[in-house]
Amino acid sequence: MANYNKSQHFGKKFRRLFYLFYNKTALGARLALLLVMTLGFMIMLSLVREQKSEPDWRGEDHLFDYSLLDDLPSDIRQIIQQKLQANSRKLYASYTNNRNEKYTKEDKRRSKGDQFEGKNKPQALGMLRILETDASSVTHPANRKNRANRGNRRKKHEASNFSNIIETNSFTAAAQKQEKLISVNKYVKATSDSCLPTCPVTPRNLRGREVVRLSASESEVLEMVMSKNISAGGSWAPRHCIARYSVLIIVPVRDREHQVWTFLAHLHPFLQRQELDYSVLIVEQAGSEFFNRAKLLNVGFMEGLKSRNFDCVIFHDVDMLPEDDRHLYHCSPQPRHLVVASSNNKYKSNLSFQRDRYYGGACMMLPRHVKQVNGWSNRFWGWGGEDDNMWRRVALRDLPVWRYPAGVARYTMLPHPPPAAVNKRSYDTLARLTPHHHEDGLNSLHYSVLGVSQLPHHTRILVDIGGPKDDPDLDHPPLPPLS
């Protein structure tokens, strides 16, 4: 009865308040109050939705680089992914620097000492949250069962526990004492790089078509190296973002020193505007035998991939300079011929006069595709034929060749004297060797490295690749040496 009287009393009070408001308050005041109440309700509703919504744990730019986990066993990788999802709210908040995100006191206490500056938060924070257990705590059944009971003890040293991360080779107790898990430095470097945002698909600093300088000196190249922060050996990567592709540029040369400086002075700024992680490798042929461009490209491929793995390889002539930086040297899933139009044929498209099989000047391939076609032929001594042979190797593997439009894929060819003698047997060699590409290429490559120089603007390898007389399978006499 008391409850009924209380509710009845409350109802009378409410009806009286409503009557006074509706009959004795001005219309403008009523509308203003109604608007304020509506806005307040909408704000409360948005806050409730924000608290209930769970942000994408990977974020728009993929906060965690899964390539770091490729070497780990599948069960370890699955546990790490589960922990990533469990910490998704905090990872995403640190990445977007969302100051309105509400954490509990426990979250703030756990993250104390784990603060990182700017956008360098999520990856490192994720590694601290995820990889703070060793292999035994992940794999051993007893440890897996009692992991929840040890959670509070791990929180105390979570920020500083870098000593044990994840083991890759063995999970036995004896191996855990000797091998201690993966090197911390590897993860610290990888996570610090991956903290940065990924470079945009279309770089922002492109200039379009420009007039190519036909001459440059070594001093100009050195001055450019100092201003562009190019690493020793001709390597460069953007510092403000993670490059989408790592590219190895292989350039075969002999007696083209002046063109080398012109090439480097043009190519370094060209690739930097495209925000690539690249290295320039120049392979120089020693001796006075016939120049073998294809064999030098094979040498550059084998030697260049010894230092690191690249996403793709560009085989580039030293006298071909791209005019338009919108012609991106980004890696493509299929082989790509780069020189579609050049100044030596008055910028006529190679596709317009039945040269669709032309594959010379510069081309891009993935390392697995180079291995799939067994690289370039080693038997083209002299000038010409090796690029058509490579096109046939690619065609025999049913790999389509991609090209940019001729209006963008334009090149300036540096002037140089024509060869004193042209290998007229090139196309005979081409016809004979194409069916036997599985026997001639990377698997039959022989050479001697005479020297390796890590110069400020490029890496140079001096090699001895022999001559035609060293190839017993060539049934025709060698051409006379070039005069």
Automatic annotation (TrEMBL):
Its EC number is 2.4.1.-. Residues 99-120, 467-476 have a biased composition (Basic and acidic residues). Pathway: Protein modification; protein glycosylation. GO terms for biological process: carbohydrate metabolic process; glycosphingolipid biosynthetic process. The keyword Glycosyltransferase applies. One of its GO terms (cellular component) is Golgi apparatus. Residues 142-157 have a biased composition (Basic residues). Residues 199-332 form the Galactosyltransferase N-terminal domain. Belongs to the glycosyltransferase 7 family. Catalyzes the transfer of galactose onto proteins or lipids. This is Beta-1,4-N-acetylgalactosaminyltransferase.
